[in-house]
Specification:
Distance between the termini: 6 Å
Oligomer: single chain
Low-confidence stretches: none
Number of helices: 12
Structural class: alpha/beta
Largest sheet: 6 strands, mixed
CATH class of the largest domain: Alpha Beta
Number of domains: 2
Length: about 325
């Protein structure tokens, strides 16, 4: 199966790592924000990444993501560039080009899926191809496929969970070591868990976008980011954490969704210390309250290069098997 890989940041490098020695896949094109490379016989990924490390480029400027999507002979476009939560671009246009050409798409990019899922899904159906996006929510945790397939037939009454690893790390460090919010955030930055500008994480926007994706793609709702009430963690104090601990509780940033009420919220919540959603470090967890199966909780690594790549790999294998590659 011939892949065109768009994006060679952390996730893109993870994808390259997990597929480069798998005989089922061949990366025939790749692009970053500055350059691209194409080889119908398959790119030398190690050489490509070494060149990027040395020069900041993987190829020539004329091979842009758009040109690759529009001109190269590939089976699946793997789109793993950073999220633009405002417009979904430039990933949105790249994905549309691929789907319009009758090419499958696998993406971890939250922007296009949170903003234009129905349009993209219709475009995929019109052209007889798959649009897969497990990596957009909770990294390695198979929450989308888990609900769609593993819990098929169950009515989902509610869904709530920890969907942002950066916030979870900050809160767990405030709890375990008595750090202030500023100290815990600085530590998260030093370890690479928080971006230089962590606003989307700490104000609840990242978790809210993931909640919108789950609502629209798995539960058949039609909501936007504006429908999610958001409160971040940036005003939490060590005193608030200690007060919670004194009553056998702790605080986590919880994304919650009640489909029948169309109630979506992201906010810090008090939880019992033995609640399955009380996790340390950057783990994610989602509890799904169902009609027949009761409460089912999914737990795993919510971010990371190879971790998110594992979700992309599962989507690639779905396409490989279903479409007979």
């Amino acid at each position: 199966m011939k892949l065109a890989l768009i994006g060679l940041g952390s996730v893109g490098r993870g994808v390259a790592h997990v597929v480069k020695n798998d005989p089922r896949f061949k990366i025939v094109a790749a692009a970053d924000s500055k350059s691209g490379a194409v080889n119908p016989d398959g790119l030398d990924i190690d050489r490509l990444l070494q060149g990027k490390k040395e020069t900041g480029r993987i190829g020539t400027p004329d091979w842009t993501a758009f040109r690759i999507a529009a001109e190269v002979d590939y089976d699946v476009l793997v789109e793993v560039t950073p999220t633009n939560a405002e417009t979904g671009e430039p990933a949105l246009s790249t994905i549309k080009i691929a789907l319009s050409r009758g090419r499958h798409v696998v993406t971890s990019n939250k922007g296009p899926i949170s903003l234009y899922y129905r349009e993209l899904e219709s475009l995929a159906e019109e052209n007889g191809v798959a649009l897969r996006f497990e990596g957009t929510v909770a990294g390695a945790v198979p929450i989308i496929n888990g609900i769609r397939n593993g819990l098929a037939g169950n009515k989902v009454k509610a869904l709530f969970g920890v969907l942002n690893g950066t916030c979870n790390y900050i809160l767990s460090r405030m709890e375990e070591e008595g750090l202030t919010y500023v100290q815990a955030l600085a530590e998260a930055r030093d370890l690479g868990y928080a971006e230089a500008d962590p606003t989307y994480d700490v104000n609840g926007t990242d978790a809210a976008i993931k909640l919108v994706i789950l609502a629209n793609t798995v539960l058949g709702m039609n909501v936007t980011l504006k429908d999610v009430q958001r409160t971040g963690i940036d005003r939490l104090t060590p005193e608030a954490i200690r007060m919670a601990q004194s009553t056998g509780q702790t605080i986590r940033l919880i994304a919650s969704l009640y489909p029948e009420k169309k109630d979506l919220e992201v906010s810090p919540r008090l939880l019992p210390e033995d609640d399955p959603l009380v996790l340390s470090e950057t783990l994610n967890a989602v509890t799904v309250e169902t009609e027949y199966a009761g409460d089912v909780t999914f737990i795993g690594r919510g971010a990371g290069s190879v971790e998110t790549a594992s979700a992309i790999l599962s989507d690639l294998l779905y396409i490989h098997d279903k479409y007979g590659f």
